[in-house]
Amino acid sequence: MQTIPKELVLKKFPTLEDSLLDELLAESTLKEVGEGEEVMRSGQYITSTILLLRGLLKVYREDDEGNEFMMYYLEAGNACAMSMMCTARNEKSQIMVKAVTDAEVLLVPSHLSELWLGKYKTWHNFVIASYRQRFEELLQTLDSIAFKGLDERLLFYLKSHVKVSGNEVKLSHQQIANELNSSREVISRLLKKLEQTGAITLHRNYIEVHDLTIV
Amino acid sequence: MQTIPKELVLKKFPTLEDSLLDELLAESTLKEVGEGEEVMRSGQYITSTILLLRGLLKVYREDDEGNEFMMYYLEAGNACAMSMMCTARNEKSQIMVKAVTDAEVLLVPSHLSELWLGKYKTWHNFVIASYRQRFEELLQTLDSIAFKGLDERLLFYLKSHVKVSGNEVKLSHQQIANELNSSREVISRLLKKLEQTGAITLHRNYIEVHDLTIV
DNA sequence: TAACTTCAGTGACTCTTATCACAGAGGGAT
DNA sequence: ATCCCTCTGTGATAAGAGTCACTGAAGTTA
Question: How many CB atoms lie within 10 A of CB A72?
Fold first, then answer.
């Protein structure tokens, strides 16, 4: 097991109280994951809560029939709310977490995470805040799927991608189609239209984003 | 203000500890709402958490552009997770809560609800459990919107309606269309198809459900 | 009973998205 | 250069869902 950089934890999770931090450092394990690696896969039992120290993760959900869609990005300083939820019920996960960039995660054993809810006020605030934030995001996603056309959703997707990882969106049309639950051809066509407005420029394997507000 | 029936509260919320129950009875207000009435409307500031003592409520969400869709039914013994969430941020609600049947709700002032999170372990368990449950339901809804056709969603909708209020679904096609974000004609046609399978019988203003599993 | 109002059924048409089929284009690897 | 493989572009076609226009049916009210 590697030593956990206390400085970093302190910096990324400033709201957590001191005694909790000590326990956190003592009891949790540090894991490094490389770009594209899976942090957690669908079907496993969830035994830890995930705290993200560095890097960027992507959280997917998979339903009974194998359909999958992205729920949200997880940035450093956040916890995976889904892992906390499932944890509680001792269920198999229906979620998949993948590293978008190289990343460091802190794995907190589930039983401790539960215990701390009662023991540390800052922890339970942290957990509740996480729930709320994800809930809100989920509602956003729901809104957009329920009410918007694919064109708007694509725009929304590109925006969120730019926000977390810059103006070179390194994705193939196929990958985008998968995440939006559509098909490549359709995405290609929509992207083409976007290119014609001047908002983006298409390349092989990546998209150069100029300005998505003009559309 | 009416007196709150302690027996009922005790029965519907058995997990709450005794001292909390006393405070709850002392500090919250009881409100009776008639069938069809709005308990909370979109755009108001949320100043209380809603606990449902008796009856059935329906929780909708409304987005910026005025689109609305049903999030879940709330049965006696449950709390409205949405009201707890919004509460925390002192935001205007984007939710609308309507009584499906006559109902009695307990309104807990927001600041108390927040305070109790730290003070009563059973309260924070209760709150966290509510979040989890709603989160799960929301994911269900998301799945079905993202991956299912309207026919399956209609089926799902009818099932959930039957579960909470019996085999006579007292809704017009128009109402169903609204809640599924579709249009009356389309719903009419789908219902007609369902009728032809023998699963339901259509009437004016209500639908008689025989067996939805056979479809 | 007659007039009115709300619900439900149906055909014709349009729009969006999905699917199929295929043609290039861009970049390795040999 | 040549071969190969993945990614992208495009037309044709089809399915699902929304819209429009209109008819009839069931209740309600006067």
Answer: 21
Query: B85, A138: Cβ pair inside 8 Å?
Result: no
Question: d(Cα A5, Cα A2) in Å, to the nearest integer?
Answer: 9
How sure is the predictor about B202, in pLDDT bands with cuts at 50, 70 and 90?
very high
The Cα–Cα gap between A173 and B157 comes to 34
Tokens of B88: 């925390």
Residue with tokens 């609600």: B93
Q: How confident is the model at residue A169 (pLDDT cuts 50, 70, 90)?
A: very high
Q: How many CB pairs under 8 A join A and B?
A: 75
Confidence of residue B92 (pLDDT cuts 50, 70, 90): low
Q: For testing the chain A interface, which of B139, B145, B157 should be mutated: the one with the most A CBs within 10 Å?
A: B139
Long-range (24+ apart) CB contacts under 8 A made by A178-187 are: A179/A69, A179/A70, A180/A150, A180/A153, A180/A154, A181/A67, A181/A69, A181/B146, A181/B147, A182/A150, A186/A150, A187/A154
**Cα dihedral B172, B74, A132, B47 sign:** positive
pLDDT at B90 > cutoff 60: no
Q: Is the CB of B181 under 7 A from strand D?
A: yes
| Alpha helices (runs of H) in chain B, residue ranges in sequence order | 6-12, 18-27, 81-89, 110-119, 121-147, 150-165, 173-179, 184-197
Q: What is the average pLDDT across A40-64?
A: 85
For position A62, what pLDDT does the model report? 79
CA-based nearest residue to B43, from B70, B25, B62, B18: B62
Return mean pLDDT, chain A.
Answer: 89
Residue A90 confidence class, pLDDT cut points 50, 70, 90: low
Minimum mean pLDDT range among A77-81, A89-93, B72-76 = A89-93
Nucleotides of C under 7 A from a protein CB: 6-12, 16-21, 26-27
| CA-to-CA dists, residue A123 to A4, A18, A54, angstroms | 19, 11, 20
CA A170, C1' C27: Å apart? Answer: 16
Contacting residues of B for A181, CB less than 8 Å apart: 146-147
Instruction: Give yes or no for residue A63 having a pLDDT over 90.
Output: no
DSSP secondary structure letter of residue B45: B
Does A145 sit within 8 Å of B146, measured CB to CB? yes
CA of A40 to C1' of D17 (A): 37
Q: Are A108 and A51 in contact (CB under 8 A)?
A: yes
- Which residue in A118, A127, A141 is closest to B142 by CB distance? A141
